[in-house]
Amino acid sequence: MREITEEKLQRYFKITREALETLEIAVHKKSLLYSVAKDFLTMARSYYSDAEYYYKKGDYVTAFAALNYAHGFIDAGVRLGVFKGEDDRLFAFG
What pTM did the predictor assign? Predict the structure, then answer.
């Protein structure tokens, strides 16, 4: 398949939205890694917002790319240990 379908895009929106909704910061506010967690979360939310913007414009390719960046920040945070994520359907584990 060489195209990004509406169904595929909606599936990725759903997974990323659920991940963002269930994500918890796993480090204490006084930890040096807390700022990393906040930065990763900001980036994930920003890319998700970008994905919505491009989707509404009909640019599925850029929307899909933005969703992948968003989820990349989420998964990186989980693997680094700054986010708590229990659902292996939503998060990548090591």
Answer: 0.90
